[in-house]
Amino acid sequence: MKKTFTLALALAAALSVSGCYTPQQQTGTLAGGAIGAGGGALIGSALTGGSAGGAIAGGILGAGTGALIGNAVTAPRRHCVRWGWDAYGNRFCRAFATY
Q1: CA distances for 87 relative to 4, 81, 95, 99, angstroms
Q2: In this predicted model, what pLDDT tens digit does every residue of 34-70 receive, in sequence order?
Q3: Range of the domain at 43
Q4: Which residues pair with 84 in a beta bridge?
Q5: For 32-41, how does the pLDDT look when each residue is reduced to its tens digit (9 = 90+)?
Q6: Do 82 and 93 meet the contact criterion of CB atoms below 8 Å apart?
Q7: Could you give the number of structural domains in the chain?
Q8: How far is CA 89 from CA 24, 81, 84, 93, 95, in A?
């Protein structure tokens, strides 16, 4: 019962963040996946009493969830709406769009 509840909770958490995707947000995906895989493997191993199968399943679920969360928390790219020039003739952004 405890394993089924834990698996259902992990699946619900993964599904709850799966809709949070923006094409510009890609930098945190790899780090989130790696951290999630490590954490998921530790939790999966602990829940199954040190079983390798539990660690593998936890690592896979953790990697997916971590990648989704890492992708969702990455800041989107900013878009410049007003350009200016400094004293040396270099162009820089004076105002960014607020979405």
Answers
A1: 65, 20, 18, 30
A2: 788 888 888 887 888 877 888 888 888 888 888 777 7
A3: 2-96
A4: 92
A5: 777 888 888 8
A6: yes
A7: 1
A8: 30, 19, 9, 13, 18
Q: What is the pLDDT of residues 2-15, one digit of tens each?
A: 777 776 666 666 65
Closest CA to 95 of 81, 76, 77: 81
Give residues with Cβ within 8 angstroms of 93, minimum separation 6: 80, 82, 83, 84
